[in-house]
Amino acid sequence: MDFNLLSMFGIAFLALIAGAINTIAGAGSNLVVPALGLPAEIANATNRVGIIAQSSSALAGFKHYGKFDTSDLGLILIPIILGGLAGASAIANINSQYVKFVILGAMILMACITYFKPQTVVPPEGTPIKKMRNTPLAWPVLFFVGFYGGLVQAGVGFLLIGAIAGNLRYDILKTNALKHLCMLGFTFMSLAVFIWYDLINWLIGLVLSVGYIIGAQIGVKLAVKASPSSIKTFLFYMTIVACVAALIS
């Protein structure tokens, strides 16, 4: 793609929409990465710069509204960061065709969970929160999600919602806040690997960051005003969109 002022504006606008979608649900990167017109590995790596900006912005927004629970952060981040480092390191050794099937399988799984067991991703009001030390299954689940996020990013927001709400039983807003903290954890790991391999277009990354930051703030405001049932419905439809995107990619 020949990047000029108009195309830069278009990229920032797409990132704004994607940032709002990612803040509430996931799969916003499906809008952005194909539109960059870069080789797949460079587009994927460059998008991570914007994701760090987006998640930082979203986390600040949720904290402002008192929806960021810090009581178990350290233990949540350990498997996420280790998984993210493993996933980013595995990129060079995994066939891209296999990655496509991994994405499709993960999105179909989340669509089924959201439709058939919605209480998994949106716990009923008053559900007690579980701690990592008392939830052994949460450790391998979060490691796997970190690995997936370090590897491909696409749709990882859904998996994080399922892992955090499903295992630790945070409500949907606190889950979304923790989701962005986790995304920061494994995205920093993968970004370090991408920098080492010189795969990042920093100018495009900066443009994406502007759009993602604004979009994340819009997404936070929408999320705190929406009902849990509305968010649940939005999650389901976005998992369907992610499935379609994985099929046609």
Q: How does this structure look, described?
A:
The mean pLDDT is 89. This protein has 11 helices and no strands. Helix 4 crosses helix 7 and helix 4 packs parallel to helix 9. It has one domain. With 249 residues, it is mainly alpha-helical.
- Give the termini distance in whole angstroms: 19 Å
User: Overall 3D geometry?
Assistant: globular
Q: Strand percentage, roughly?
A: under 5%
Q: What structural class do the secondary elements suggest?
A: mainly alpha
Range of helix content: over 70%
**Largest β-sheet summary:** none
Helix and strand string, N-terminal first? HHHHHHHHHHH
| Count of domain modules | 1
- Unreliable segments of 5+ consecutive residues: none
Total number of strands: 0
Individual helix count: 11
Mean pLDDT: 89
Keywords:
11 helices, globular, mainly alpha, 249 residues
In short:
With 249 residues, the protein is mainly alpha-helical.
How is the secondary structure organized here?
Elements: H1 5-24, H2 29-32, H3 40-64, H4 73-90, H5 96-116, H6 118-121, H7 138-151, H8 156-168, H9 172-196, H10 202-225, H11 228-248
